[in-house]
């Protein structure tokens, strides 16, 4: 299902003409109305009139998360406060959050892009959408809600938590689409099983899952436990919330809505723009936002871009599944690794349950990583030797695949805390000391 053929299937040349027109407007807009940008542009010796082609993008300065924090709460808005109709904030737990202010037109844009996401995943007006993303300051709940309303689907605004009730309603309302984080989808499946309900037999057919990194093998796990097609959705509060990019059933990258968000991939160390297919940090410029309008925002997320048209008919570029955030990259004895890469290996192990945590400690001045992984209760009823053998096998598998030596500790079912939203995969005990 393609929600907006005109824009999602636009020939690239035409799309680029539109992007340039919008980029010019947006640079004018921030220069005129956001003192922070006027100052930054001046410092760099660049003015809105210098933007004459998309290649001129690299003349513009980057925007960082810490700059947004410094502007807290309304300092970076490009619209007067009287035009703002809604606020959302980022979900960070420490320090001041990042605030996104939306004008009425921004809410219309947001509805449009999340409607595209849901349609891209196969949703139509006939669907019953079980929306278990958190409602409130987090953008997940309301963002999906607006898109679902635009396509005329039936939304259950259930938010996160009270999982037994979620399963009951999913069964009684005959929900067809589940929207939540991948880790919460797994938790729902676990609770359903305990209730004696087989989700695979319910009408549920698609999951629109995102807001946290998840690996290909985690996808397989979710698909088989819930009996659904699990598709990835990407977004961030700073830019709009969910609705920046969405995977189609081809499962080969997430279509980025380039008529609204202009993507680049850069080398995070040098800031240099990288070519198609090269891995680096995703940078986004909002082309149509009014309230919060950002120029070259450094998302901190690692991906690649692919400009080849997709078999689904969309001409929009695709970003590869996000590997993780730069801040979450672990460097252990010289090996750079993202938690999602370890997850991918763990989910290949037959005895592994999809619940794990990574514990980072410093021992004798060296960083050490221990993988805590749940396995079935049956394994613990065997001899201790069996548990140790399995731990060794998993450690070996990780070392062979990733070149990284880790400790593995198998734990009983339900030891690891379940998440209603974004799962906490890494426990950094170095910072606790
Ligand atoms: O997580 C928005 C969202 C809601 C996206 C619902 C998808 C679905 P924030 O709380 O601001 O916003 O967190 C944004 O989460 O920079 C990524 O690091 C991470 N993230 C979001 N989607 C994905 C994804 C929402 N599909 C931050 N895969 C982003 C990997 C993701 N990481």
Structure characterization notes:
With 433 residues, the protein is α/β, with parallel strands linked by helices. 32% of the residues lie in helices and 25% in strands. Strands 4-3-5-6-7-8-9-14-13 form a nine-stranded mixed β-sheet, sandwiched between helices. Helix 8 runs parallel beside helix 9 (216-226). The radius of gyration is 22 Å and the shape is globular. Bound molecules: 5'-O-[hydroxy(phenylacetyl)phosphoryl]adenosine. 5'-O-[hydroxy(phenylacetyl)phosphoryl]adenosine binds next to helix 6, strand 7, strand 8 and strand 12.
Provide the low-confidence segments as ranges: none
Determine the structural class based on helices, strands and strand pairing: alpha/beta
Biggest beta sheet attributes: 9 strands, mixed
Largest sheet, spatial ordering of strands? 4-3-5-6-7-8-9-14-13
Q: Termini separation (Å)?
A: 52 Å
| CATH fold-level assignment of the largest domain | Rossmann fold
CATH homologous superfamily (4th level) name of the largest domain? ANL, N-terminal domain
In total, how many domains does the architecture comprise?
A: 2
The unique ligands bound to this protein are: 5'-O-[hydroxy(phenylacetyl)phosphoryl]adenosine
Q: Given this structure, which CATH class of the largest domain is correct?
A: Alpha Beta
Q: In what range is the share of β-strand residues?
A: 15-25%
Overall shape: it is globular
Radius of gyration: 22 Å
Number of strands: 21
CATH architecture of the largest domain: 3-Layer(aba) Sandwich
Compute the average pLDDT: 96
């Amino acid at each position: 299902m393609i929600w907006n053929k005109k824009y999602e299937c636009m020939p690239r040349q035409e799309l680029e003409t539109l992007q340039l027109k919008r980029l010019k407007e947006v640079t004018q807009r921030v220069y005129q109305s956001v003192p922070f940008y006027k100052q930054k542009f001046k410092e760099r010796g660049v003015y809105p009139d210098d933007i004459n082609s998309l290649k001129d993008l690299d003349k513009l300065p980057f925007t960082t998360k810490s700059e947004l924090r410094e502007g807290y709460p309304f300092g970076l808005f490009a619209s007067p406060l009287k035009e703002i109709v809604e606020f959302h904030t980022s979900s960070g737990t420490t320090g001041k959050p990042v605030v996104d202010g939306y004008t009425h037109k921004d809410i219309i844009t947001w509805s449009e892009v999340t409607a595209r996401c849901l349609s891209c995943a196969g949703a139509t007006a006939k669907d019953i959408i079980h929306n278990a993303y958190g409602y409130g300051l987090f953008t997940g709940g309301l963002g999906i809600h607006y898109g679902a309303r635009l396509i005329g689907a039936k939304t259950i605004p259930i938010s996160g938590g009270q999982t037994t009730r979620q399963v009951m309603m999913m069964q009684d309302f005959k929900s067809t689409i589940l929207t939540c984080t991948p880790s919460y989808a797994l938790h729902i499946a676990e609770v359903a099983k305990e209730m004696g309900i087989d989700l695979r037999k319910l009408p549920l057919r698609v999951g629109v899952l995102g807001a946290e990194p998840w690996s290909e093998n985690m996808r397989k796990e979710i698909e088989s436990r819930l009996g659904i097609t699990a598709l990835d959705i990407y977004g961030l509060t700073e830019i709009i919330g969910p609705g920046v990019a969405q995977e189609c059933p081809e499962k080969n990258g997430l279509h980025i809505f380039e008529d609204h968000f202009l993507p680049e991939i850069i080398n995070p160390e040098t800031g240099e723009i990288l070519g198609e297919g090269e891995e680096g940090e995703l940078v986004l410029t909002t082309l149509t936002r009014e309230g919060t309008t950002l120029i070259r925002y450094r998302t901190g997320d690692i991906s690649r871009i692919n400009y080849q048209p997709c078999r689904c008919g969309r001409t929009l570029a695709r970003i590869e599944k996000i590997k993780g955030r730069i801040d979450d990259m672990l460097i252990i004895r010289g090996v750079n690794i993202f938690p999602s890469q370890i997850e991918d290996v763990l989910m290949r192990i037959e005895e592994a349950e999809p619940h794990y945590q990574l514990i980072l400690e410093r021992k004798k001045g060296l960083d050490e990583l221990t993988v805590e992984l749940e396995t079935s209760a049956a394994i613990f009823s065997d001899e201790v030797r069996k548990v140790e053998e399995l731990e060794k096998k998993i450690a070996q598998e990780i070392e062979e695949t990733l070149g990284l030596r880790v400790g593995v500790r198998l734990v009983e079912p339900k030891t690891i805390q379940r998440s209603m939203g974004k799962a906490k995969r890494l426990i950094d005990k170095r910072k606790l000391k």
